[in-house]
């Protein structure tokens, strides 16, 4: 395994941890019993996580294409999950 591949796999591990933290936070903030105080606004966390996942997604697509995979239009991907509506700003 090359150094670049090890770095990439470490980045995927980091992203996995960030996704877990994000899910935990959203679930925590969704309960009325939450007493946790966070240092960063959730919108900042979402921006950073989205950017990280986008970068890793592009790398995965490039790796696939480099291994003979078909060229992918990343904007055409349809998830089976239903995206929640953004909360209304008052």
Key structural traits:
single chain; 90 residues; mainly alpha; 58% helix; 0% strand
One letter per element, helices H and strands E, the order comes to HH
Tally of alpha and pi helices: 2
Shape descriptor reads: extended
Helix vs. strand class? mainly alpha
- Low confidence ranges: none
Beta content: under 5%
Secondary structure: helix percent: 55-70%
Q: Taking Cα atoms only, what radius of gyration do you get, to the nearest Å?
A: 17 Å
- Main sheet record: none
Overall mean pLDDT: 84
The end-to-end distance, rounded to whole angstroms, is 51 Å
Number of strands: 0
Describe this structure in words.
The chain has helices at residues 3-29, 42-66. With 90 residues, it is an all-alpha fold. The chain has a domain at 1-29. The mean pLDDT is 84.
Entry summary:
This protein has 90 residues and is mainly α. 58% of the residues lie in helices and 0% in strands. It contains two helices and no strands.
Which helices and strands, and how do they pair?
Blueprint: H1 3-29, H2 42-66
């Amino acid at each position: 395994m090359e150094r670049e591949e090890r770095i990439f796999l470490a980045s995927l591990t980091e992203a996995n941890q960030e996704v877990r933290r994000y899910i935990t936070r959203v679930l925590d903030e969704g309960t009325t019993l939450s007493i946790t105080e966070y240092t960063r606004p959730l919108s900042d966390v979402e921006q950073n996580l989205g950017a990280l996942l986008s970068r890793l997604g592009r790398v995965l697509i490039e790796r696939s294409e480099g291994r003979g995979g078909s060229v992918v239009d990343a904007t055409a991907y349809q998830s089976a999950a239903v995206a929640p509506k953004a909360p209304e700003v008052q």
